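Homework-ish question, so no full write-ups if that breaks the rules, but can someone show me the predicted structure for this set?
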Amino acid sequence: MKKLNVIFLITLLMGTLFITNSYGQDRKGPPPGDRKGPPPESKHSPIQSKSIDEIGGYKIGDTATDFILKNVDETMFSLSDIKNAKGYIVVFTCNECPFAKMYEDRLIELHNEYAAKGYSVIAINPNSPENESEGFEAMQKRAAEKEFPFVYLVDEGQKIYPEYGAVRTPHVFLLDQDKKVQYIGAIDDNAKSPEDVKVKFLEDAIAALEKGEAPNPNITKAIGCPVKAATSK
Amino acid sequence: MQRDLKFILTGLSIILISFGFTYSYDEPFIQTEKTDIPVYNFDELEPLLYTDSEKTVIVNFWAMWCIPCVKELPHFKAYADQHPEAEVIFVSLDFPKDIETKLKPFLKEKGITSKVVLLDDADANTWIDKVDPNWSGALPFTIIFNNQKRAHYERSFESLADLENEVNKSILK
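A: Not a homework solution, just the prediction itself:
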């Protein structure tokens, strides 16, 4: 009898050992190692090679200058062509960038809903047409395929996007009636999945303008494709 | 009394042993996960952006769809090959569904053997500033750091020499 008990005790101990042993290996998430979690605040001395300020472009409150750019229908377009505008949704976008494409349908919906209320979408492709897939013909093709209800303009000579400070596609600049920049950034907080959007930054900003208030937040960030500058620069 | 004790001990042993089994059974799966491309949210990624060690770490945010990113990839590979003392980590912003069909074949073709993780965290507006308040969100983006110094680059590197020069300037000097 006593012998049996001893055997049980040993088994029990072994069982415990098993658990302790395997438990250590059952880690999920980032592997352990010589790494350390978040900000050791003052320890690092960040060196910034190029800040947003250096990139330049409009800041909140700046007045955007109007432009004359060629639309996919081969007519010339200016902001002043829109009569009775209460604001302007200027969005830098392009043909190929997956993050820009994910927002095409949402831009169409936005224009369909807000153009009548005085806020039209004005899409500008800032990319160098050196790459054929971003050239004028490809833009015409994309606009026709998607039946863009808004103008899709080519930034000929790539002069307008640096003036705005567009660095990625898509990149939105919401202007008010007086062409003052009121909001810069993302359309909403979920590029990949429209049904999981929690905050509609752009629509909230328009709602704020409608109430005569300043949008909050007035600057947001998003992952996007870099604007392709011409190589012969 | 003794019978009861025996009963309890048997029961306990069986439970404990089965636990042991369950855990050890999981191990092979965890092992394969390590060689795979893990999909992280930002909280899971963040520890990779810091180090306790003096070695140089280069973290490059990129995606297959980003042309300048793809163009500079060979410079990072060359750096990793020539500087085994440094660690190069690629943070891909591609789509998780493309890992097996596109990303892995792409990395193989480019000969990338450094660590690659995929960041899948929708609300970029909340985490971009945590990486660097000056980052606009455009790709590519690179951080070069060790436990003392840190430099951010919202641009692509033109050559291996360009990258080496920046590492020397910002970290090793």
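Now go work out the reasoning yourself. Hint: Chain B touches chain A through 64 residues (CB under 8 Å).
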